[in-house]
């Protein structure tokens, strides 16, 4: 029997559509995409890519914490970028939130993200 629960925290932006911040099934948590919204104002934190990347990881951390885990528990991370030239900056920012062993990761270039953000990330966590 599976134990399925939706995860919600006010420390991360509220869902802006028909989805949950995360869904936990047994010891696995499936994170919805986080964009760089300030959880209180629901607006982009900045137009600066690095500041947006930091906010994305802060938002992911808040949801992971609400599920009972930590960022280090992420086993698969997907990062979506509107400009792949920002890839080196993603690595720089990620190094401030993760240490080895790093999660498996994909970095995908796309044309547009919600609210015209420059970055979005989702992932899978095992607690």
Automatic annotation (TrEMBL):
InterPro entries: RidA, RutC-like_sf, YjgF/YER057c/UK114. The lineage of its organism: Bacteria, Pseudomonadati, Pseudomonadota, Gammaproteobacteria, Alteromonadales. GO terms for cellular component: cytosol. GO terms for molecular function: deaminase activity. It comes from the Bacteria. Pfam families: Ribonuc_L-PSP. It comes from Halioxenophilus aromaticivorans. Signal peptide: none annotated. Belongs to the RutC family. This is RidA family protein.
